[in-house]
């Protein structure tokens, strides 16, 4: 959810996740807008995706928007593309004309016009080429083994936020990675899981290895390399040969910056989250929180075959005049990035909690740390971290020298989280001119860009071309409103 600055509108992502209800049911994903009024009975506007996707499914799929589960037509189950969309998180543009909604399973971001109450566009995010970066793809290799593999990954961000860097707006995305699974239900002979282990696909002779280097074939057939990696299977097959040419993983184990107008990649942390956590906290590298009778040390490396460190939450703010981005991961780590002269730089990584005793013992002793971080918010000089495994909220003080130094154990009431307005933290987020020229060459060169020219003429985007300077009068008006309301 996201409020406009004057609290007049609340934008809500309705995921509509599929599941069991006697038979298979997958409600259409949608976005709701609640419009406040003086009567205390807000108007509800629901915005669906059928009108923009119907009869254009092939066009959007060819551009890179995924339609993961199409149903089981032999069993009479039809799942439309707009049913398959799963809206997750919301952020607003700086002028609050547009809402951006993450669609992680579909590897896309939707842009919603909250003035005309329509879907402006569904924008694909494409793939990241992992061959230049180091990744650990096995939970059976004895620990951290970061290697180069000629494979790809879908970004699939869950949490997103807006950042303004050097007078330019960007969507910041935590590229977690999501796999769509359904348990067996009436009418389905088998449960649905879009993924499969790479080695199993190889054993089934479902890979087209004609253009592969010999080293990739070896890696796929080794559980200590790529064999255990969960890869895209259900919608990755060639339509003619029905075989899979490229290995594609879920989530890029990074955070990214995207242009709000084109959703083109401007920056990516490449393999930094995974490598930094290995350097600083090797005992919890790519660790899991799945067995209370095991210790964090015993569960080390168990998520390497899934999503690695798995960035799950983020917050954007600033310390003084320095823009900051904070990333939380499933492993319980908090990464701090700050803008320096030549762009964003990793400043520190912090993980609270002990690792030698079992999760149950650590939880009872309030020493488990921040296992499975689900939310990070910005309030003054504090980062508020909400964790799933501990059902707790802690406050981390961010110091002026950009180091995360102290973590308090005191619980912060949910009322504090409800009052948290991320828009306050980014109102003045304008940095140095150096970032304007800092487009990550590596991240751009090896990202597979997906052309959206074919769908540009479907939805008018001329309204998006208003310059930042032209919007300043409205922005200043909104800032005055914020001073009145807050």
UniProtKB/TrEMBL annotation:
<feature type="compositionally biased region" description="Basic and acidic residues">
    <location>
        <begin position="300"/>
        <end position="309"/>
    </location>
</feature>
<dbReference type="InterPro" id="IPR052956">
    <property type="entry name" value="Mesenchyme-surface_protein"/>
</dbReference>
<protein>
    <recommendedName>
        <fullName>Choice-of-anchor I domain-containing protein</fullName>
    </recommendedName>
</protein>
<dbReference type="Pfam" id="PF22494">
    <property type="entry name" value="choice_anch_I"/>
</dbReference>
<feature type="domain" description="Choice-of-anchor I">
    <location>
        <begin position="2"/>
        <end position="337"/>
    </location>
</feature>
<feature type="compositionally biased region" description="Polar residues">
    <location>
        <begin position="281"/>
        <end position="298"/>
    </location>
</feature>
<dbReference type="InterPro" id="IPR055188">
    <property type="entry name" value="Choice_anch_I"/>
</dbReference>
<feature type="region of interest" description="Disordered">
    <location>
        <begin position="281"/>
        <end position="315"/>
    </location>
</feature>
């Amino acid at each position: 959810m996201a409020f406009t600055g004057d609290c007049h509108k609340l934008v809500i992502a309705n995921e509509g996740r599929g599941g069991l209800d006697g038979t298979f049911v997958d409600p259409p994903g949608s976005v709701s807008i609640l419009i406040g009024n003086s009567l205390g009975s807000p108007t509800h506007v629901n915005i669906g995706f059928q009108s923009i996707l119907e009869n254009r499914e092939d066009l959007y799929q060819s551009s890179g928007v995924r339609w993961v589960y199409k149903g089981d037509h032999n069993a009479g189950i039809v799942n439309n593309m707009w049913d398959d969309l799963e809206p997750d998180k919301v952020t607003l543009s700086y002028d609050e004309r547009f809402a951006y909604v993450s669609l992680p399973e579909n590897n896309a971001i939707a842009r919603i016009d909250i003035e005309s109450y329509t879907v402006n566009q569904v924008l694909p995010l494409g793939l990241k080429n992992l061959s230049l970066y180091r990744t650990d793809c096995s939970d059976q290799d004895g620990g951290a083994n970061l290697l180069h593999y000629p494979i790809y990954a879908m970004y699939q961000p869950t949490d997103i936020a807006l950042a303004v860097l050097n007078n330019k707006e960007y969507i910041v995305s935590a590229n977690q990675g999501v796999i769509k699974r359904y348990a067996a239900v009436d009418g389905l002979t088998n449960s649905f899981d879009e993924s499969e282990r790479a080695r199993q696909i190889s054993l089934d002779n479902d890979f087209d290895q004609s253009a592969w280097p010999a080293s990739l074939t070896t890696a796929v057939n080794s559980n200590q390399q790529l064999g255990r990696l969960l890869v895209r299977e259900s919608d990755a097959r060639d339509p003619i040969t029905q075989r899979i040419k490229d290995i594609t993983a879920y989530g890029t184990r990074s955070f990214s910056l995207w242009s709000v107008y084109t959703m083109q990649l401007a920056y990516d942390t490449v393999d930094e989250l995974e490598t930094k956590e290995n350097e600083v906290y090797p005992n919890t590298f790519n660790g899991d929180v799945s067995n209370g009778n095991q210790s964090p040390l015993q569960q080390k490396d168990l998520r390497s075959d899934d999503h690695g460190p798995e960035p799950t939450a983020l917050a954007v703010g600033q310390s003084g005049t320095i823009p900051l981005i904070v990333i939380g991961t499933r492993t319980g780590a908090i990464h701090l990035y700050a803008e320096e002269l030549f762009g964003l730089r990793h400043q520190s990584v912090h993980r609270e909690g002990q690792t030698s005793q079992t999760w149950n013992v650590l939880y009872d002793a309030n020493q488990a740390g921040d296992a499975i971080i689900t939310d990070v918010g910005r309030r003054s000089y504090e980062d508020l971290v909400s964790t799933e495994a501990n059902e707790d909220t802690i406050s981390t003080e961010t110091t002026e020298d950009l180091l995360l130094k102290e973590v308090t154990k005191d619980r912060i009431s949910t009322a504090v989280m409800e009052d948290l307005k991320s828009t306050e933290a980014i109102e003045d987020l304008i940095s140095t001119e150096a970032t304007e020229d800092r487009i990550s060459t590596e991240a751009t060169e090896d990202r597979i860009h997906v052309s959206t020219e074919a769908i540009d003429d479907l939805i008018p985007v001329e309204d998006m071309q208003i310059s930042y300077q032209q919007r300043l009068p409205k922005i200043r008006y909104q800032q005055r409103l914020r001073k009145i309301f807050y």
